[in-house]
UniProtKB/TrEMBL annotation:
CDD domains: HDc, NT_ClassII-CCAase
Pfam families xref list: HD (PF01966), PolyA_pol (PF01743), PolyA_pol_RNAbd (PF12627)
SUPFAM superfamilies, A to Z: Nucleotidyltransferase, Poly A polymerase C-terminal region-like
Taxonomy, superkingdom: Bacteria
Enzyme class, broadest EC rank: transferase
Span of domain HD: 267-393
Keyword annotations of the record: ATP-binding, Magnesium, Metal-binding, Nucleotide-binding, Nucleotidyltransferase, RNA repair, RNA-binding, Transferase, tRNA processing
Signal sequence extent: none
Name of the protein in its database record: CCA tRNA nucleotidyltransferase
Cofactor(s) demanded: Mg(2+)
Organism expressing this protein natively: Propioniciclava sinopodophylli
Length: 479
């Protein structure tokens, strides 16, 4: 079994063994006659010099014993995972407080037709580690004795940047098919490449992902997209056929490659837009944004359905924005994203072409106001998506589009300062409309409100008196 180097041992001790909360929990388990191992991601991350956040432990103690030990340290425990042998707790040591989860050694497997594992508790650490997803997550450190366990060569794979499974990939992915998506996530999150046998198994077993709940697939996809470099993981899903099961609209883009060069490679363009949107997120001071990244992935999914060959060998994709928005809404709803997320992403997909009218002709202030109104609270995300959507290699065209959008943003900011554009409300509210016209609540109030809103969009703020006069003229003409 490979041993730790001096530097690796020091890294583990600094990140783990010296942590006050971990020491307190370790002492409690040792006093009760049990071993306790930090396992999986925390060990991997400590060895990579990354921050250790989640404290996941495994032990020979059974759930009742785990709970009793933890209750001796804190009143704050929970057992939502008791059926899987997991007890959680919030433990304090001095001024430090950490959330810990402790799980009994397990030896579970999945029924081929079930979404849930059949749980049985194991008696050995080695038996527990073989059921982990990848060798780099199948290393453990005893926080009681300091012993390091790596029965499946995780250290070597960590050094090589390779994703392998402790057992055969076929057994591992059959036990939990979500591990195939996790391989894609780690490819992006860690920058590791899957071993050839892992890729082969993912390709051969892609349909097994169908038994996994939409919520678990959604969560894994979200983690992948929120990583620093999601392109690698997304591409792995497509290459192995997993995307055909979970993101068929994106997988379909690959089949739109035009060997005659009449239009750009939509799939590669999509991956580039995703990367460029992430760069813009950072440049503009934003945290990783799931909604914005989903919009980048889905913005052109309507193209295959709207593809049309025009005269002169040209290809068009008329209304792919509207069609793509509907497709996006359907897919994200099926993946159980929240209604707010679905609505926001679909809106961005629908609006992502709106700017091109500005690039081709001068917009009036009214048109700029409408652009802002239609974007609503998604305006900043629309700025990022629209800018990222420029992937042309024509330097002159790219510079023209970039300059045009900078000008549009400048005009939006200038109008906002002058007019409080963000509010985008007419000068008179519903109460004032009813008061001026002497009418009761009803559809006419809404019609009058929309008239005044259009007036404001066209002319800017009118002021109370001018708005009142315009309303009365509208009312007179209506009568």
């Amino acid at each position: 079994m490979p041993s730790l180097s001096v530097d690796q041992r020091r890294a583990l001790e600094a990140a783990v063994l010296a942590t006050p909360v971990i020491r307190r929990v370790a002492d409690a388990f040792a006093a009760a006659g049990h071993d306790l191992h930090l396992v999986g991601g925390p060990v991997r991350d400590a060895l990579m010099g990354r921050g250790v956040n989640d404290l996941d432990f495994t032990t020979d103690a059974r759930p009742d014993a785990i709970e009793a030990i933890l209750r001796g340290l804190t009143r704050t425990t929970w057992d939502m995972g008791r059926e899987f042998g997991t007890i959680g707790a919030s433990v304090r040591a001095g001024s430090d407080e950490e959330t810990v989860e402790v799980t009994t050694y397990r030896a579970d497997s999945y029924d081929p037709a079930s979404r849930k594992p059949t749980v049985s508790f194991g008696d050995s650490l080695v038996g527990d580690l073989v059921r982990r997803d990848f060798t780099v997550n199948a290393m453990a450190l005893s926080v009681v004795s300091g012993a390091f366990a790596d029965p499946h060569g995780g250290l070597a794979d960590l050094a090589a940047g390779v994703l392998r499974t402790p057992s055969t990939p076929e057994v591992s992915f059959s036990d939990d098919p979500l591990r195939m998506m996790r391989a894609a996530r780690f490819a992006s999150q860690l920058g590791f490449g899957p071993a050839p046998e892992v890729v082969d198994a993912m390709t051969d077993m892609a349909e097994r992902i169908d038994i996994i709940s939409a919520e678990r697939v959604r969560d894994e996809l979200s983690r992948l997209l929120l990583s620093d470099a999601p392109r690698a993981g997304l591409d792995l899903l497509v290459r192995t056929g997993l995307a055909d099961r979970v993101l068929p609209e994106v997988a379909a883009l690959v089949r739109e490659v035009d060997e005659h060069g009449r239009h750009k490679d939509i799939y590669q363009h999509t991956l580039t837009v995703l990367e460029q949107s992430i760069d813009l997120e950072r440049e503009r001071g934003h945290a990783p944004d799931l909604v914005g990244r989903l919009a980048a992935v889905f913005h052109d999914v309507g193209k295959p359905r709207t593809k049309k060959f025009e005269g002169g060998g040209k290809v068009s994709f008329h209304h792919h924005d509207v069609v793509g928005a509907k497709m996006t809404k359907k897919r994200l709803t099926e993946l159980r994203f929240s209604s707010d997320e679905v609505k926001a992403v679909a809106k961005l997909v629908e609006l992502h072409l709106r700017f091109h009218g500005y690039a081709d002709a001068d917009w009036t202030d009214s048109a700029v106001r409408r652009y802002v109104r239609d974007a609503g609270d998604q305006l900043e995300r629309l700025h990022i998506l629209t800018r990222a959507d420029c992937t042309t290699r024509n330097a002159r065209k790219a510079n023209r589009l970039r300059t045009a959008y900078e000008q549009l943003e400048w005009r939006i900011d200038a109008l906002a300062e002058q007019e409080e554009l963000d509010a985008m409300r007419p000068d008179l509210d519903g109460t004032r409309i009813m008061e001026i016209l002497g009418i009761a609540p009803g559809p006419v109030v809404g019609q009058a409100y929309r008239f005044l809103l259009e007036k404001r969009l066209d002319e800017g703020p009118l002021g109370d008196d001018a708005a009142r006069e315009a309303l009365l003229e509208w009312w007179k003409a209506r009568s």
